Structures are given as structure tokens and as C-alpha cells.
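Q: Here's a chain of 320 amino acids. Please give me its 3D structure as C-alpha cells.
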Amino acid sequence: MFTFLASGKLARMTPFISVSRLSKTYATGFKALAEVDLGIERGEILALLGPNGAGKTTLISIVCGLVTPSSGTVTVDGHDIITDYRKTRSMIGLVPQELTTDAFETVWDTVSFSRGLFGYAPNPAHIEKILRDLSLWDKKGSRIKELSGGMKRRVMIAKALSHEPKVLFLDEPTAGVDVNLRKDMWDLIRALRESGVTIILTTHYIEEAESIADRIGVINKGRIVLVEDKAVLMQKLGTKQLIMDLQHPLAAIPPALSAYDLSLASNGAQLVYTYDAGKETTGITELLADLGRAGIQFKDLKTDQSSLEDIFVTLVKEPA
């Protein structure tokens, strides 16, 4: 991001969260993070994707001050997470994967107590708003142990929001939550973003990232593989396919068509052409002409776009 100086020149603004050359090696020798660089802008939603053990939770834990890095620096709004721990921690809300609430406390008490832990004065109106936004208001007097897993997850989010953080980390926020509740939570996350909250979420639900994220980050084996605007990522790495239903199945692709990226599907009843939609020419016109010359007839055709899941699998796939 850039801003204009008084001189009229452009100067790069520091990201709201800045991670520089961050590494973490545990006592066992396991290297969870390796030279991670990441910049997150104020008021954006960044979805962090990666397989199990990729380093997602370690990265979040370091930024939140729960794990000490081996090397590197992290700042939040210009404040170092180690030398200015209290300031940075007060700006951050964290929803961990584990459900760690006191089972015998009521919903109201546990959320209110969480606000007090950060030194904030009681604000019943704010707590009420959070509980209503999370569809927890009718459960405010219920003990945590009486709630379903999905409701407990909502209480964890309410606790994280109790002290009005500027940054919200959501580590698998909708794990174990049914589809309807998940969509409600997506709406809440979007509303928080609109209010200026910076949101970083890890998720195993690819559709979650595709639905609500502004940018997608992919981490694998402790390294950031890619961070890109969602739409740009889909355009850059997403491929399209032209799928042709053939009049007569093929046993093999004729040698005359070997110049095209073709494959057979549905026991030879479909011919699939993979192409880059971003290129100046797709080659479809030439392919259709060559199919006619080869005597191959089709009765229907359709196109299909690579999904974010396809792209993710490609990025983290082990080399052959």
C-alpha cells in the first residue's frame, strides 16, 4: 500500500501486521516456521490455507504472544509483539481451535470476565450486542456445559470480541459447526471487516476462504508458498476446461490432436481440453477445426473453471 508524501512522492505504508523473517524451531528439532515474511493490511480478511502441520497455528500463536519465535520480528500497528507485549495483545482477539471455556460458568459471565482480563471496564451493552450478533442472547444464562459444540464455538468468538480488538485471529472457527450456523458466522466476519477489524482465519473449508476472504495465503512445511488477492489468484492459477460429449466414444486420442492438452473422460465418451483463459488465444477455434478434420463429432460441450480447492491441491502437492 502507498501514500503520498508532502513532496508528492509515493511512500510505501507499513502493513498493519508485519511479519519479517519469522522462524520457529521447537526443542525437539522440528522446524515449524522458516523465514516467513507476511504483510496484512488493516481491515482485510486473509484466509491462511495449508495442510495439517504446515505451520498455521504456530504462526498465529507467535503473533498472539503465546509462542516465542526463534528468530524474526512481528509488529502490530507498528508495535513489536515482544517489547510491547501488553499493547499488541490488547489489540488482538483469538479464537483457538480448542474449546477452552469454563464449563460451569454462564455465557454472560464468561464473556464479561474475558473483557475484564484485558483491563476494560464493564460494558453490558457491548456484551449484549456481541451475544445478539452471534445468536447467543437466548443462551446468556446457560452454563457452557449445556451448549452444543457449535454454540460453544460461538462463545469462543464472543470472548475474543469482548475487548473490542482491532485484529481477530480465527483458527478453524467453523470446525464442528453446522452449515446454517457457519453461514451466519461468515456474515458476522464480513460485518466485523466492514467495521475496520483485520481478520486472519485458518480453515480446512475451501469454500469458506473462497466466500469471505479478500486475499488467500498458502503455507506448507513452515514456508509461505503464496499470498495473493483471491480474484487475481483464481485468474493466474485457475485453468479452464472445455468438455465435449462425443457422438462416439474414443479408445485413444488421435495423433493428429497431440498438439493440444487433451484427455479422455467417462470411458472415452468425453474429450476434455484444458487451456489458459487468460491468454490472448485459447486455441479452441483451431481445436474444433482439427476435430472436424479428424472426423470426431460431439453432441454437446461445456466449460468448467478450476476451483480454489484445485489450486490449493496443486500448490501443496508433493513433487513426483
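Q: Can you summarize the key feature?
A: The domain at 13-91+166-181+189-237 is CATH 3.40.50.300 (Rossmann fold).
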